[in-house]
Amino acid sequence: MRPTSKPGAVSLTNFWIGLLKARLVVIKGFQEPEPFISAVKYHLQKLGINDSNAYIPTNASGEPDRKALKVHQYKVVGFSVVIPELNALDSIALQIHGCGGKPKMGCGFFSPVSSLEKHESDSEPEPRSSDT
């Protein structure tokens, strides 16, 4: 029995979540932006999220937001990933399962981001003025 078949039940597939963002996603063997985002979309398809518009945000200099994680003597390279316009079920599935490797190191975890936070994190910080 599906949850939407009950009287008064609400279907979660019609609700849209604005934006999910992961600070660092690592996928072994993918260190360049184009193949990396293809690998992310493949992982999302394995979770049942087919029509995602995943992308890598740019840093202040306009380049893909590449991040590095040091594990013992090794340097693991990954990227920040943003996924807009997911329905509620896909959003929850992605937040539960994550994407990519190194989850014990905090990689691949997605969280909802408001539009205000999105604009602040994707642009240069404002210089602080001194009051003296």
Summarize the structure in words:
This protein has a 4-stranded antiparallel beta sheet. Strand 2 (66-71) and strand 3 (74-87) form a beta hairpin. Residues 123-128 have low confidence and may be disordered. The protein is globular and about 40 Å long. It is built from 3 helices and 4 strands. By secondary structure, the chain is an alpha+beta fold.
Strands, helices and their partners?
Blueprint: E1 16-25, H1 33-46, E2 66-71, E3 74-87, H2 88-97, E4 111-112, H3 115-121
Give the key terms.
132 residues, alpha+beta, four-stranded antiparallel β-sheet, globular
Beta-strand segment tally: 4
Percent of sequence in beta strands: 15-25%
Radius of gyration: 17 Å
Q: Uncertain spans, ≥5 residues at pLDDT below 50? A: 123-128
Largest sheet: 4 strands, antiparallel
The topology string of helices and strands comes to EHEEHEH
Q: How confident is the prediction overall: mean pLDDT?
A: 77
First-residue to last-residue Cα separation = 67 Å
Strand order of the largest sheet: 2-3-1-4
Brief synopsis:
With 132 residues, the chain is α+β, with helices and mostly antiparallel strands.
